[in-house]
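Re: the 208-residue chain
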Amino acid sequence: MSALLDPARHYVIGARDKEDGLLFWSNGDGFGGLDAATVFTGIEAREAALPLADEPPDWFALPSSRTENGSGRFNPHVQSRIRLDLLDHIHSLLWEYLIDECPDDENWEDFDPEIDALSSTIEDARQREAEQVAGLPKKPLRFMVDVEFASSDQPFATETYEVEAFNWTAAKCAAFRLADDSPYSNERIPDLNRRAVDRNALGLTAPG
């Protein structure tokens, strides 16, 4: 199926669990709620291997939307909107199933307790996602990020980058992308690694 994935779309990995219902894959935490799911581009999904699960997992296409704004900054508002749209879609499918299939003289929780419980779980995830969106800044913030270059864990150089992002994680990723063009990002340096430091959090100002 991965060969049929649209490179212009975004995807999450989902699998049905006998006890917990539909779960979604996170690269950091494994299978869990959709609110923490890892979002893959279509190109990444084509190259990724599906994780192991009790039931065969599959790719779920997210509603069409850009995950970055015009300048290439990661936008968690858009990311959360994508998850909210998917949660709404799943919740609607569950409700339609219960409304169409459940007899009039029977309660939903008695007719299909697993689907009824899954519907409640999805609704809880929708609420958490909405609360997270409400707590995000409306505009990107300015970060001063020190990228420390090290060889075999021994620092040998530091460069400072000014980036705009909605949170520290996005700022760090943006700084690392800029650091890719640094002369210190040289593959000939043995055991090269990099570490990002938030100058804002340390109360430091830009150098110079």
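Confidence is low (pLDDT under 50) at residues 65-73.
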